[in-house]
Design brief:
The protein has 7 helices and 2 strands. By secondary structure, the chain is mostly helical. It has one domain (18-224). It has a two-stranded parallel sheet with strand order 1-2. Helix 4 (77-143) packs antiparallel against helix 5 (148-165). The longest helix is centred in the middle third of the chain and has 67 residues, at 77-143. The radius of gyration is 30 Å and the shape is rod-shaped. The chain crosses the membrane at residues 123-142, 148-165. Keywords: Membrane, Transmembrane, Transmembrane helix.
Amino acid sequence: MADEKPAPATAGDLSRLALTPEGFHDFHGAVAGLRFPIEVAQVLELRYLINQAADAFAAPPDAETAAALESLALDNQRHRERLRQVLAMLHDLHSRHIAASTGGENRLRAELTKIGRARAHSIRYGLIFLFAAAGCGGAWFWLGDPGWTVKLAALGLMLLTWDYLRSLPVLKRQARKSALELDELLRRRVTTPDWKTLAHSLALVLGYKQPGATEVFRVEGEADGGLPKR
């Protein structure tokens, strides 16, 4: 049985998120799609993941995420700088995500082009040898008892025809596999992140923004009417 790929992480399964170019799609979708309140354990998982990555990142802030940060109107300067660093880290991660995705797309498109050329080559030469084999077969039939040259030529051409045409199903499977990989790669590409939504969710998760009417997290027992929501 073929190995099954693990399902992508969702907003309800934050423990599987990874701040890598390959994992940016899942992280962006999960964080931008958060519906508060969320479990305390999820808040802690996100804080650990984000803070660990941000601590290891050193780069100047970028203009693309500056507007998202300003829209939050954070009063605490330390929180502003920390969130600026987090957003700069995510912007750099997104740039690497796009570079990796584009590189993968170019590779897969080159593979599809190569497979298409190989398929056309196999069809062309397969038909050429097929017609040549048919000609030798016709000569064999009309001559009744041709020499070994005609017989060997007919058999050789038939083998060449089979060799070229038998590769077509293999090439078709390869093309289908590469096309599916390309579709999945393009589906997971985050062309334009929703920086404002990300900044808002991150500010709530990291505790930098007062929730107001938004309840950021809940603790066990709230579903049964126990402890109050935070």
